[in-house]
Each structure stands twice: as C-alpha cells, then as structure tokens.
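Please decode residue identities from the backbone states below.
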C-alpha cells in the first residue's frame, strides 16, 4: 500500500515539474514596442491611419472622388475649434498624421500667403510657412523624398500665387515647415497638386497646373522637371490621375481655360486626347470613376458654359452632358449615394443650386435625381460621407451665402447648415481628427477662419463582444479568432483588439451588428496571452471582453497538455493541486 502511494506521489511530482518547466515563462513576455496590426505605416510604435481617418489632398484622392469612408456623429454640428488666419481662406484642407505620432495635422493655405499646420484635435498652430503670395491651392501630403530604402517620411506640396510650387518637410516635431525645394512656373499656381508614381519607376512625382498654361510633372526628390505639357491657356483645374483607357499606364486628366479637357500620358506627358467644350473656360477639376459599371472609366467635369460633362476615358467622347442655369466652377464628387448600384455625380452651380445626377444614365442630357437651392452661388466642391451615423451618405458643401450645408445623399433633403460670416469657397474635408473613430468636418471661409465641426448623437453603445478561437495552441501557428457584438440600436460596430503580445488591431472597419468579424493571429512566443476586445458605434464604446490563449513550447507539449486538460475535466477530484495550478 505504501509503495503504491509512493509511486502515485512520484508521478504527481513529475507531472507538476513537467508543467512548471513547460510554463516557466508564463507571464514573463516583455515587449518593448507596441505594434499595430494591419497598419500601412512602417513604424510599429504609432497608431494607424486607416483611409477613413485621413484626407490627404484636394477632394480626398487622386481620382478626386470627394468620398470618405467611416461614420460621424454630427446630427447637429458643434464648433470643435476655429482659427483666425487673418485673411480669406480659399484653400481646402488636407488631414494627415504627418509625423506618425498618432495625432493628425490639418494643413490649409490662406490668402495671407501662409500654409498653416494645425494640431487637428484642438486647432493649435504647429507651424506656418510663408510663401510670396496668396495660397488658393490645396496642399497634398505624400512620401516623395527617396530617403533610405523602406523609410517612409511625409512631405507637403502646395502651390502659391507667387508662381511657385513648394515641397516642405511637414513634420512638426523636427522641421516646422522646412522647405526642401521649390519650382518657379510662369504664373499663379492655384491648381492643387497631386502626388503619384505616374511613370512607374517606383518613385512619386508631383503633378500640378499653372496660370502660365502648363501642367508640370516634377521629380519628387528635388523638383526637377520630368515633363511639361503646354495647354493653350491657364490651368486652374486640379489634375486627376488614373488609367482611364485600360492600357496599363496612368493618364493625367485636367481642364484648361482654352475650353479643352485633356488626357495626357503620365509617363511622357504627350497628349492622348482632348475634348472641346462650348467655347467656355474650365475651372472645375475632374473626377474619375466607373459610373456605368462597365467598360472604361468615365470622367466628369464642369465648365463655365453651365454644363457638366461625362466623357469616355478611352477617347474623350461624350457620354452625356447636363446643363444647369449657371456656371459650374465646383468640382464634382462621385459615389453611389442611394445604394442602388449606380453612381451619382454631385456638384454646385452658380445658379445657387447643388445638383445630384445619375452618373450611369443613358440619357444624353443627363438625369437629375435631385437639386437643392441655397441662397447664393455654389463654387465649393462637395464632400460625401456618412457624417451622422445613419448608414446613409450625406453631402457636405459650402455656398457663397456663408453657410456650410448638410444634405441627405439619397434625397437631397436639408439636414442642417452651419453659419460663417462670409462666403465659403473652400471645399470641406471629412476625417477623424481626434482618434475617436468618428468623422469631423474641416473647411475654410472668407471670414478668415478655419473651422472644425463635431457633434454628438444620443444612444447606447454596443454590447461587449463575444470572442471565440483557439485557447490551447502552438506558438508559431496561425489561428482564427471571431468577434461578435450586438448593437441595441442596430448600428454598425467596429472592434478594437489587444492580442496580449504587444500587437493591437486598432479599430477595424465597421461591420453590421451581430455579424462575426474574423481575424487570423499568430503567437510567436511561449506564454499565456490575455486577448481583450471591445466594440464601438457612433454613440460610444462597449466594455472589454477577455479570454486567455495558452501557447506552450512545442507541439509535443501541446499534445500532452491537451491530454492533461482532458483528464482533469473528467476526473475533477483526482488532481486538485494540478487543476488549481493550470487554472492560474
């Protein structure tokens, strides 16, 4: 009897020692750096900048769509902050985390010649760079200096009425707007630059128009000329860039005061086609999209002849035109506003109206879905996004009546306006400026101010998410984990996941309430990991949910561990001490 007890005791000790040695590093994982999962940046120690969190250039992107993903909570706007620049603000904002510190900056020009960089959350000035004249051009942020391989540092490019194009180091922590280079054209640069690798060499170029009638393609590293395309009159239009003819190379699309809309080869700067309007100037900038869901991309652009043109990207042939009752200097935005599978085109006119056209119509004169009349000319270009979290797109646009309007995207119904003290020419930008997961609105006014609008909506946050996935696994093996949250309001939810190993999945895109969001994760070190997740909607954040994942040294131990766990579950009184240890 004593020998039997001794054997059992020795087995017990061996099992305990085996477990202790196998788990010797539990709780000892140390990670010097917080890493962000699925981040596009190269620095793991920062918060990510998903596309719905930024607005890096005029009308959001190189296609000039004017559309922002994400949602807001602005059912009734509040002024989050404002800043008096001392002069009219014609420029439109760019919003970007230039220094990659997790806090975004707002960049915008002023007619006092300054390009101003604000802290996006509170509106404090981080730096200002003075050019030689008014800045009507809107800045663009991008990586155009070559640097070391793998390095990503962001520069700011903007035009000025002093005839120059400027490239600045935008990092407020190190440079305060240091100028890398400038290029002098032969006229005002009111056109807004775009940054893109148009020649396919792996490095970004700067493309922008000038009042001297030229469109310039400049080397991003030093501002030297790659090519110059000469139109026959001034170019105020801001270029859009895409492969509009499906030939594998991008084209540069813009309008000119010579009455023409141009498509220029991005590699060589040679003309591919031009379309002539009804002998009127073109100030509007083009937007590019697949409006009819088939064939080549389409181009939409307004003109002083009161018309909105829709052109075939392949050859510039007209697909339809719409004639308003006033000049169209506003640049169109494009998106499927009513979720009917067809794209809409939204723009303002000098007949005081905001128009929404069916972009896919076969009607040769265009088809109006709705229009809304303000009290003065509309030269501002619209921004599109779900600004109030109602799961429908809103249209945000300024008017010379001094108001910024919010209209329901599907119907054009009035939702609200925000009053300033003078005309609004600046085009609004939508982005999450304070990292709360919700869109804010930034724009300028001729009353000299830059405004940031925010808001709140009353409602309940989502329920804490459920988490399922492998809890006893093998280090180095990828496992799928599922997260599900129910929203009592039926709103979409986003998830924040802390994997417990120093990796964070920072606020995923929004998903429908009750649907499962899945993500694959790999634990590379032995240990016990606490996986935490929470959900949020437009009203707030849920409580945390936690589970533990055990990753032992190897697959052999994992097999043994699972056997032990099986025995403990079925013989709950056999190994009380061991059971206690394994549950800690």
């Amino acid at each position: 009897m004593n020998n039997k007890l001794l054997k059992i005791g020795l087995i017990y000790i061996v099992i305990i020692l085996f477990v202790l040695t196998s788990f010797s590093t539990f709780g000892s994982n140390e990670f010097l750096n917080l890493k962000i999962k699925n981040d596009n940046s190269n620095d793991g120690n920062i918060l990510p900048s998903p596309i719905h969190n930024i607005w890096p250039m005029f009308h959001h992107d190189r296609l000039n769509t004017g559309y922002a993903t994400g949602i807001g909570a602005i059912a009734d706007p509040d002024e989050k902050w404002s800043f008096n620049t001392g002069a009219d603000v014609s420029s439109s904002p760019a919003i970007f985390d230039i220094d990659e510190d997790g806090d975004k900056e707002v960049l915008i020009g002023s007619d006092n010649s300054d390009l101003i960089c604000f802290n996006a959350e509170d509106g404090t000035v981080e730096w200002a760079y003075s050019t030689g004249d008014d800045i009507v051009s809107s800045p663009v942020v991008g990586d155009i200096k070559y640097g070391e391989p793998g390095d990503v540092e962001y520069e700011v490019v903007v035009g000025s009425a002093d005839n120059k194009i400027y490239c600045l180091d935008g990092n407020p922590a190190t440079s305060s707007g240091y100028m890398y280079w400038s290029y002098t054209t032969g006229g005002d640069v009111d056109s807004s630059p775009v940054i893109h690798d148009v020649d396919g060499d792996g490095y970004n170029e700067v493309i922008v128009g000038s009042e001297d009638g030229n469109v310039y393609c400049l080397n991003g590293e030093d501002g030297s000329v790659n090519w110059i395309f000469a139109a026959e009159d001034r170019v105020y239009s801001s270029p859009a860039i895409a492969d509009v003819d499906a030939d594998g190379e991008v084209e540069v699309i813009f309008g000119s005061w010579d009455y023409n809309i141009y498509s220029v080869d991005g590699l060589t700067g040679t003309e591919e086609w031009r379309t002539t309007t009804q002998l009127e100037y073109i100030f509007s900038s083009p937007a590019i999209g697949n409006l009819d869901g088939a064939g080549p991309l389409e181009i939409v652009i307004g003109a002083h002849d009161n018309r909105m043109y829709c052109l075939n990207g392949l050859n510039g042939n007209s697909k339809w035109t719409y004639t308003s009752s006033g000049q169209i200097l506003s640049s169109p935005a494009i998106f499927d506003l009513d979720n009917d599978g067809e794209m809409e085109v939204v723009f303002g006119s000098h007949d005081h109206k905001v128009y929404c056209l069916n972009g896919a119509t076969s009607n040769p004169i265009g088809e109006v879905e709705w229009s809304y009349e303000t009290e003065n000319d509309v030269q501002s270009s619209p921004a599109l996004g779900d600004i109030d979290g109602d799961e429908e797109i809103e249209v945000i646009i300024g008017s010379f009546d001094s108001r910024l309007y919010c209209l329901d995207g599907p119907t054009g119904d009035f939702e609200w306006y925000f009053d300033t003290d003078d005309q609004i020419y600046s085009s609004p930008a939508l982005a999450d400026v304070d990292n709360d997961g919700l869109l804010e609105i930034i724009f300028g006014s001729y009353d000299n101010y830059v405004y940031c609008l925010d808001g709140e909506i009353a409602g309940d946050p989502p329920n804490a998410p459920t988490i399922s996935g492998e809890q006893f696994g093998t280090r180095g093996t990828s496992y799928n984990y599922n997260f599900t949250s129910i929203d009592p309001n039926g709103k979409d939810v986003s998830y924040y996941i802390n994997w417990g190993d120093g990796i964070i999945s920072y606020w995923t895109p929004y998903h429908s309430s009750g649907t499962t969001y899945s993500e694959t994760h790999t634990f590379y070190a032995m240990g016990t990991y606490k996986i935490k997740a929470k959900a949020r909607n437009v009203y707030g954040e849920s409580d945390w949910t936690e589970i533990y994942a055990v990753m032992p040294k190897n697959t052999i131990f994992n097999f043994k561990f699972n056997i032990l766990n099986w025995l403990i579950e079925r013989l709950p009184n056999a190994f009380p001490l061991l059971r206690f240890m394994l549950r800690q």
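Observation: Helices lie at 2-22, 555-570, 576-582.
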